[in-house]
Amino acid sequence: xxxxxxxxxxxxxxxxxxxxxxxxxxxxxxxxxxxxxxxxxxxxxxxxxxxxxxxxxxxxxxxxxxxxxxxxxxxxxxxxxxxxxxxxxxxxxxxxxxxxxxxxxxxxxxxxxxxxxxxxxxxxxxxxxxxxxxxxxxxxxxxxxxxxxxxxxxxxxxxxxxxxxxxxxxxxxxxxxxxxxxxxxxxxxxxxxxxxxxxxxxxxxxxxxxxxxxxxxxxxxxxxxxxxxxxxxxxxxxxxxxxxxxxxxxxxxxxxxxxxxxxxxxxxxxxxxx
Length: 274
Known about the structure:
It is built from 6 helices and 10 strands. By secondary structure, the chain is α+β, with helices and mostly antiparallel strands. The chain has a single domain (17-266), classed as S-adenosylmethionine decarboxylase. Strands 2-3-4-5-1-6-10-9 form an 8-stranded antiparallel beta sheet.
């Protein structure tokens, strides 16, 4: 088995492209229309483009890459997107394309809108806050994609990403494309032997979730989805104290939240109209 910490002896550059797609859902109970809109506004502020940029910059550092360019945007009525272009090695100022907005300046302090780039890789994040007008359930979705080539691996950032969001449901896709060659000219379609994305997640984190894999080893495609096991109702109520609710209502809310999570986790409408 070739681990991520063991360097391959290659002929030329490592041409393998490794793509990690990280998708999370946060579910909340907001009873009134006003509470639902307040929840969306709260999420929109908590995960604005500036904070998301900080998260992606931290991911870049964790995987051992260097930012070349950053693009970020907040949207109306809600949502945000950030894109980073990164390089495996640190580039000197004279080698960075003049069109890149990074070039060593403190981006977030000097620009209202920023774009980022990497020479061999890129990172993107998009947010999708939403609520159903006829129910009391609101959801917040974050999609993060990390595409790398060379020696850096996006799998190293999984624990950090999970820890930075209130993740009730997590869906992770990892795919390796292309090939590289060793010094003898033999094609290599994977740089390490891999069985599951779960192998790269802290066991303490995994213990909090029910996890399921769907892997296509022949195509170097790996899929893991995770559903939170334990629910503390107070953590899912927006501007409401659970002790102010009668027991039957607490039970009903918990049941509705769990049903919503199960349907998102399953990717299908299981329970029908509520």
